[in-house]
Amino acid sequence: MDDDRVRELLDRIGRHEEPAFRELYKAFSRRVYTYVLNMVKDHGRAEEVLVDTMYEVWRAPARFRGDSQFGTWLIGIARNKALMVHRARRPDELHDDLDDIAETTAADTPDGFAQLAGKQRSEGVQHCMGRLSDEHRECMHLVFFEGMSLAEVSQVQGCPENTVKTRLFHARQKIKKCLSLLLQREGGSPVGAAS
Length: 195
Prior knowledge:
Blueprint: H1 3-14, H2 18-40, H3 43-59, H4 70-88, H5 101-104, H6 112-130, H7 134-145, H8 150-157, H9 161-185
Helix pairs in contact: 1-2, 2-3, 2-4, 3-4, 4-8, 6-9, 7-9, 8-9
């Protein structure tokens, strides 16, 4: 959605026009939800943060001054709300909700092994991403999954662009090392090794 359309919708939302809010919600909700889910790892809480974030837009659409793209501004609001939710979690809630392998793939399916191997690779990447600091993980998500520029990430994270570059560099190095160790344990060749 282009900036002119966003500004038009925000003006209409300022006049409490629900169809304008629905259109804006439809255009941005999935992106915000995906971003928040990556942070809080809980569908219910991600939905809460999404609703709270969009409520901020409904309540005060004029807060968007146009200093950045609307999506970047919206992710910034969601980030602050998600951080509050994440910090409020009790220690006993910080558990891993991995699906049971039996539910994911049936042993008698012809491609069961391929599904299991894919699940293990995905879990390996998730494991390595989980070992990153919050700043590094968020930086990787914003750049590679949200497609944000370094300037936009620096606005969301409240740091200089060079810090974003450094975080990306270190995050890639840590992911590469972690995945290499996982592959070595499984008897495969390390990442980056000649085959």
